[in-house]
Amino acid sequence: MRWNYRLVSAVLVLTSIIGISFALYLEHVQGLNPCPLCIFQRIGLIIMGLIALVAFIHNPVSSAFKRFYAFLATVSIGWSVAVAARHIWLQHLPADQVPSCGPGLDYLVDVLPMKAVLQEVLSGSGECAVIDWTFLGQSLPVWSLLYFSLILLICLWQLFRNYGVAAK
Description:
Disulphide_bond_form_DsbB, 7 helices, two-stranded antiparallel sheet, elongated, mainly alpha, cell membrane, oxidoreductase, redox-active center, Bromodomain-like
């Protein structure tokens, strides 16, 4: 099987759909409400999926366009990796160092400018430090980080691979 650009873009779209579907399953079927950091992780995954979808539909011939799409997808999923890592860090803080719970994300978006919302959310809150779901002894942010890291590796490969004449 040959991993051409379009096929890898389709795989990236599929990984985004699977990740978001699982997040929605946990939220709406299992009743786990996402904290602000979880929502920000989803945003990066969704944007990566949309960029991969555009790349799949466009199917560029030019290696410059291929690298441009791959760069945007890499940055987007890199955001999710960074936010998941921050989430894990918050979950491993001693109880006395966990930030207090602040207002909800809806309130922050309504009241504050976007830069302040980003600063507030990324500083974390007490609700982000709660571990309310585990699988094989690891929390959801750990599994998310692993999943996003795998996707990031695919995006990086797509960005730096050889797009010679035979690799259309």
